[in-house]
């Protein structure tokens, strides 16, 4: 079983749709959580951190459930430019702070 | 903004060559990482470093070594390149604790 699991998709949605991605992790000692976005043949870029209380950045909302070891990302009013692969990332505590990346969920937003 | 710079975007080398991939970050980050990314396999950690001259093996260190002589620079070395090391190589850096990693643009390495 992978340490971080994501539904690979692909998710194909029309513009304006709301779409949600889920991620589960197995290491209960994980301390920090993030969503990254990766465009085709580019590097991953930080989309947002995920906090226990839930947090929002414009059309994006992230949630964390530590008890269930579950992270989610909600995208409202999808844009064509949201088409990308979304990576869930779980980070250990401590000095080195090793991160474990999910394999990503691919989203295609269509006109 | 954090800037992580990798020395080459594209690189073509021959089997058996010693290959150096360089990474420099400008944010005084303690931690630096090297990954490779292949279709269907996601990001895999090769090596990481949490201080100058310190290094730790990641999940797939075989065939690679690293060097961190200065805080801002982390080098990945392919001791004797093989065709199965053809991949996208990504360098990242971060502060310790709960801070996210920031990635360079990546190096697409082809070994012929």
Question: What does the model show?
Answer:
The complex is a heterodimer of chains A (111) and B (112). Chain A is mainly β and 111 residues long. Helices cover 0% and strands 53% of the residues of chain A. Chain A is globular, with a radius of gyration of 14 Å. Chain A starts with a strand and ends with a strand. The model of chain A has no long low-confidence stretch (mean pLDDT 93). In chain B, strands 2, 5, 6, 7, 10, 11 and 12 form a seven-stranded mixed β-sheet that branches. A three-stranded antiparallel β-sheet of chain B has the order 3-9-8, with no helix packed on it. Classes of the chains: A mainly beta (111), B mainly beta (112).
Brief overview, please?
The complex is a heterodimer of chains A (111) and B (112). Chain A is built from no helices and eleven strands.
Globally, the shape of chain B reads globular
Principal-axis shape of chain A: globular
Helical content band of chain A = under 10%
What class would the helix/strand composition of chain A place it in? mainly beta
**For the report, how would you describe the main beta sheet of chain A?**
6 strands, mixed
Which class best fits the helix and strand makeup of chain B?
A: mainly beta
* Helix and strand run of chain B: EEEEEEEEEEEE
Largest interface, with counts of residues having CB < 8 Å to the other chain, equals: A-B, 24 and 25 residues
How many distinct beta strands of chain A?
11
Please tell me how large the radius of gyration of chain B is.
13 Å
Oligomeric organization of the protein chains: heterodimer
Helix tally of chain B equals 0
User: How many β-strand runs of chain B?
Assistant: 12
Uncertain runs of chain B with pLDDT below 50, 5 residues or more?
none
End-to-end span of chain A in angstroms? 37 Å
- Report the β-strand fraction of chain A as a percent range: over 45%
Strand proportion of chain B = over 45%
Count up the helices of chain A. 0
Kindly report how far apart the N and C termini of chain B lie: 36 Å
Which residues of chain A sit in consecutive blocks of at least 5 with pLDDT less than 50?
none
How would you characterize the largest beta sheet of chain B?
A: 7 strands, mixed
């Amino acid at each position: 079983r992978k340490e971080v699991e994501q539904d690979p998709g692909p998710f194909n949605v029309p513009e304006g749709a709301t779409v949600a991605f889920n991620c589960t992790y197995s290491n209960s000692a994980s301390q920090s959580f993030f969503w990254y976005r990766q465009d085709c043949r580019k590097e991953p870029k930080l989309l947002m951190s995920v906090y226990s209380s839930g947090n929002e950045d414009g059309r994006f909302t992230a949630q964390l459930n530590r008890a269930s070891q579950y992270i989610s990302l909600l995208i409202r009013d999808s844009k064509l430019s949201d088409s990308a692969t979304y990576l869930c990332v779980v980070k250990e505590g401590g000095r080195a702070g090793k991160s474990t990346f999910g394999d990503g969920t691919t989203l295609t937003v269509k006109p | 903004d954090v800037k992580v710079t990798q020395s080459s975007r594209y690189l073509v080398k021959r089997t058996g060559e010693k290959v150096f991939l360089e990474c420099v970050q400008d944010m005084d980050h303690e931690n630096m990482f090297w990954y490779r990314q292949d279709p269907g396999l996601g990001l895999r950690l090769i090596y990481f470093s949490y201080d100058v001259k310190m290094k730790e093996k990641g999940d797939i260190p075989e065939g690679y070594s690293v060097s961190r002589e200065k805080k801002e620079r982390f080098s990945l070395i392919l001791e004797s390149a093989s065709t199965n090391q053809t991949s996208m190589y990504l360098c990242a850096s971060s502060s310790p604790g709960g801070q996210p990693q920031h990635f360079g643009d990546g190096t697409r390495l082809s070994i012929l």
